[in-house]
Each structure stands twice: as structure tokens, then as C-alpha cells.
Design goal:
Layout (H helix, E strand, L loop, with lengths): L6 H7 L13 E3 L6 E3 L33 H16 L22
Antiparallel strand pairs: 1-2
Bound molecules: zinc ion (2 copies).
One zinc ion binds next to loops.
Length: 109
């Protein structure tokens, strides 16, 4: 499965994605963060933002409004948490078979 080039392509292949143990990755509407994410993924509140301190599913602008995307520091913290769990033997969403380190193409702010 090739890395999707667009968000649309990513959403289209999401139901066929697998975890690092080779099992189908299950999407759920998570009650604790309000996001739809894979069951093996850390929840938003488990990756607080180093920049704005948000533990909600959205980052916060200095004005207090929700930001459109996570701050780059938080995306990095989330990726690090996934890598940590994978190293501990917990299944994580399988990465694309290429050398790009990021799991998602995080929109930058
Ligand atoms: Zn969640
Ligand atoms: Zn933030």
C-alpha cells in the first residue's frame, strides 16, 4: 500500500490499514477525545501540546480559539509517543513502506 498523496486518498484507504502486528486497524469514534481515530493510536489527551498546553482534540490559538491543526511540537510529541509504544511491543498503525518518518502529513501552522 503506497503512501497516500492527499487527505482524500488517505481517508479512502483508512479502512484497509493495518497495525504493526498485521491486524486490521480499527477506527472508532473516541468518546474521550471526540476524534475518530484508530483504537491503537494514543488519544489526544495523552499527547498534550508543548506549545499551547492543550490536551483537547484541537490545539489552541493564543486568542483561546481552536487552531485548525496541531502545533508542530505536538505532532512530534504524538509521533514520539507512537514510537515509544511500538518499541514497548504495543501495536501501532503500520507505517508506509518508505523512508518518510511521519505517520501523517501534519498540516503545519
Ligand atoms: Zn481518543
Ligand atoms: Zn498546541
Amino acid at each position: 500500500m503506497a503512501r497516500p498523496a492527499t487527505l482524500g486518498e488517505y481517508l479512502a484507504i483508512r479502512p484497509r490499514m493495518i497495525d504493526t502486528h498485521g491486524r486490521p486497524a480499527i477506527l472508532e469514534n473516541c468518546a474521550s477525545c471526540g476524534r475518530q481515530h484508530f483504537t491503537v493510536e494514543p488519544c489526544a489527551h495523552e499527547a498534550p501540546c508543548p506549545r499551547c498546553g492543550s490536551t483537547a482534540s484541537r490545539c489552541r490559538r493564543p486568542s483561546g480559539h481552536d487552531a485548525d491543526a496541531w502545533h508542530a511540537e505536538r505532532a512530534a510529541a504524538f509521533e514520539a509517543l507512537c514510537a515509544e509504544r511500538e518499541a514497548a511491543g504495543l501495536p501501532q498503525v503500520a507505517r508506509w513502506p518508505d523512508t518518510t518518518p511521519a505517520l501523517f502529513d501534519w498540516p503545519s501552522t
